[in-house]
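Q: Predict the assembly, please.
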Amino acid sequence: MDTINVKDKDAGATLAAGDELRMETVGLSVRYGTGNYGIRDVSMAVADKRVTALIGPSGCGKSTFLRSLNRMHDLAPDITVTGQAFLDGEDLYAPDMDAVLVRRRVGMVFQKPTPFPTKSIYENVCAGLRLVGVNKKATLDEAVERSLRGAALWDEVKDRLKTPGGSLSGGQQQRLCIARALAVEPEVLLMDEPTSSLDPNATIRIEQLIHELKEQVTIVIVTHNMHQAARVSDYTAFFYVGELVELSATKEMFLKPREKKTEEYLTGFFS
Amino acid sequence: MGPAQKSAAAALPRAFRGPGDRVFKYAIVGLSSAVVALALVMAVVIYIEARPTFKAFGYLSFLTETTWDPVKSIHGALPFIIGTFVTSFAALALAAIPAIAVAIFTSEYAPKWLAAVINYTVDLLAAIPSVVVGLWAIFNFAPLMRDAVYMPIYLWAEASAPWLATMLGAPSTFNMTTGTIVLALMIVPYTVALSRDAIGQVPRDQREAMWALGATKWEVIRQAVIPYARTGIAAGVLLSLARALGETMALAMLIGNSNRLPFTLFGPAATMPSLIINEFREAVEPLHYSSIMAVGFYLFIITIGINLVTSFVQRKLYMGRGMV
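A: Predicted assembly structure:
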């Protein structure tokens, strides 16, 4: 995996010894129809089975970067993405790469819980599997239980799998969305401020869950909350005005940031 | 708050400002009540005017009586009820699927400029007065359909399937099928507009959630967009039905206005509105007059019923997914 040349800042080199590279971007830029850059020339590494947090002030491009990792920008016709994003050495933006397959391998959980309101809890979890033609009840039953257990929701909903997903509380809905993303067994899970609409208790549960999930899946999480980044992540990337300022091991970054800008942000000099 | 502002407030005492509030309040309360009162009074007046008919034939027997013969003073509404329901539901069946398809195409597939052109044209269609649509159909569409479509089918049926020929009936220029097709054309814009609005209400995050699971465009539409919008689409279809039930002019011009059952597909028929528009001038007999009122009364009830069902469907579906 370490054969890829990283163009600038040796982002890949900042991974700790023993950590393997799972995703990597090289000179990735996202440009809006207005001509403004959402992110500019970002080269960054994501370690396998680790949690990488993206932090930075509002509008710094952290969500834009996250959404470029599973080609969600394809859906907006006036956004152009240039550069490369590798998953296991394959360029996700290669001309012959199918964006639908990319999203099957790189799952996503959004800021607001988005259960499908007309589908039951069971069918919400199955949604991704049914897309690929998995319809055998035994397989689905097994996947639903595994995913809901994985999202720490099984015990709360196992007796009411047929009720609508919208009937759950906000925190439960978000865990349902995590279960739904896990059901298709993605290689990487992207989380876009997954706790920003949740209360403190629900937030703690999701954070615990992230800890457990990194055993099986690589996680990239955007958070506007520095403390959350410190609590849940192994690596932290600091973005500022569309550029990656620094990627470091989380401990290192919070104790001894390399860049002045990072230090200013972490000490509350600006936000 | 400087001293200058304080004195300005004192200079315009409450008493001088109060009347404006009160006048405005009374005016809007009065106007709003007038709307409600108008609807109620209209219903009551129509009912009172229709009462002689209900007395003579009974509320239900009037609905099930098949003869409408003003000369013999026998009045039954069944032919018109059948005509109204058959044309409306058939028009809805013809219109709904293409209309929903157009709505999906313009909101999901078409480039912005094309969607704008289509939406504008559809809205324009809705704005054409129905008498103009009827005029076009009378002189162009109806004769064309008779000669190019109904005649060949009927002649074939007569030769090869006589049972079908009796159902079809001898083609006349103005008939139930032509009326239904034109009615369908007239409700398409409504169904398109209402379905389009319903699809537009689907939040972006619902689509994105489905995309993120690795869905294709069609799968997103089928699994995320349509399920979410189906309440609104259903409500739109029902409202289009109410519109079809009440549509008068184009049908009166095209349906041939036969008051006698049985109706055939290619033969003339009548609907409740077409009966009213055709006979109100000649209704000199008190019973004839009150019977037309009675038909109007039932039409009123039916359309109100459809509207109530629509709002019930909306409420019920929304509550079912915990979204109220």
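Residues 207 and 228 of chain A are 8 Å apart (CA to CA). Residues 1-12 of chain A have pLDDT under 50 and may be disordered.
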